Every structure is written in C-alpha cells, then in structure tokens.
Amino acid sequence: MSICYLDGSYRPTEKCALPVTDLAIARGVGVFDSLRGFDGKPFAMEEHMRRLEESALRIGIAVGDTVDRIRQVITDGLKRRDCPGGGTCLVKSFITGGDTNDLGMFPNPRHFVIFCRVELPADEKYRNGIALMPTSESRHCPTVKSINYLTGIMQCAGQADVWECLYCPGGEILETLASSFFAHIGGTIFTAPLGTVLGGVTRSFIIDLARTYGYKVTEQAPRLSDLPDADEAFITGTVKDVLPVVRVGDTVIGNGKPGPVSARLLRLFREYRDRRLKAVDKKQEEGLLPPSS
Question: Whole-model pTM?
Fold first, then answer.
C-alpha cells in the first residue's frame, strides 16, 4: 500500500484526489521530483528539493514556502509506521498549477507527496543491459521536471523490448524519457550539457565520481553517428542508479554486453550513497544536525 500527503494529512493514496479544475488535469501544469528513502532517511533531499523549486518557478508557479513544507512532509512521512518498506521507498513530490491561471502565472498551487514501493530494475537488466529507441523528438521544456511525459511515452508505446525512448533531435543525443544518457567513446565519457537536458541529480553525482576516479568527462552531446564507435553507454536516474545500454535502435553498443565503466560507476555510486546516509546518522549523533522527527 502507498500513502499520500494531501490537504494537511497522510492517507492511503486511493483516498486522495485532486479537483477536476486543477490545472494539472485541465492543462498539464505541474512539476514533480522523485527521491528515495532508506530506512527512514531521504537520500539527496536538498538536491531534489532545489530542482523541484527551480522547475516550479520556471513555469510560473508561485512557490512561496511550499518546498519547505514538502521537505517536512517527507521527513515526517518516512518515519511513519504506515510508510511503505519501513521508510525504504520511493517518494514523489508534486506541485500543481492549482485552479488559477493568471496570464500564464499560477499563484495558488497545490502540493502532494506520494510514498510508494520502489520498483527497481530487474537484476538481469544490469547483467544484460537494455535497449533504447531513438526518436527525432525532444523533450518539452528540458530544464523543467514536468509531469507531462506524453511525447516520450508515445515514441515506444507497445514495444516490450525497449526500456524507453532516447531523444535525438537532429541526430544529437540528449536524454531519455526519464534518465540521463552517457556514452563512453575513445576513452571519454560524453553526456549532453545542462540547458539542453534536465539537471539529473544522479547525473551530477556520476559526473563528479567519474572525474574523481580518473575518467575524462565531457559535457557535450554525442551523436547517433558516434555510437558505432562507443565502447559503452548507460543511463542514470533515481531508481535505476546506473543502468547499462547495449543497443540504441539497430545499433549495438560495443560488444553488445555491459562494460566495466558502467559497472564500476554503479558500484562507486552505491558506495557513495551508503557513506552519505551513514554520515547523516553520525552528524546527528554528534549534534551537528537536528534529529529527524
């Protein structure tokens, strides 16, 4: 069972509803962000909350203290007895446009937070890799984590052998439906620059870790024509961490199997996440951080 915080209380998700007049329903006006909780502790909450606030402001939603309230909702919700997984779960925070459209500005937003089970990729996806479907489309408002995923969903609807679409307008590889894309070509890891893609939280950690451990990373979009020369490719995201890509359309990446770069970065990221979560506990014990309520 999942729970949802809406209108001042936590309830089973099936007992929560938005008015049909909310602009998230009527016009698709809304933003969201997803983070993971581990044993009642949120991972990288400040990075996720900053992105949520920036996304809302970019589309004209009056944020006010909404993000501060969401932050407290997450902290409290992960400690609840009815939180899925005992606080090891996926937390999805939403800010909608509310009922008022004031010349493209949204002064009265709503917010809600869903705590639900984490649906992790199957182990075989990490062992064997995944396939992506290239499309000439690009994601609408790439710097905003919008609730509107329709364009990307339509591109590979009904294709069971494809993980998700890969936005490649003009042959330039940007990102996938819900992930950041990386290609390892000639000893360098390439990924599209911010401004053309969403600022993925996991993306930023992977770039920092890769550089720290001796990889050359260039924030430049690779092209579809570069993929035959790629040794490896992978995507990153909150739920998938680092997931190897072995095929894009009809192009096989490298030898068609996950490679050592993605495997090492996956291990390094998970070790970093564990250290960071443990550091929160240590700081609380030392009185350096206020205890979570």
Answer: 0.94
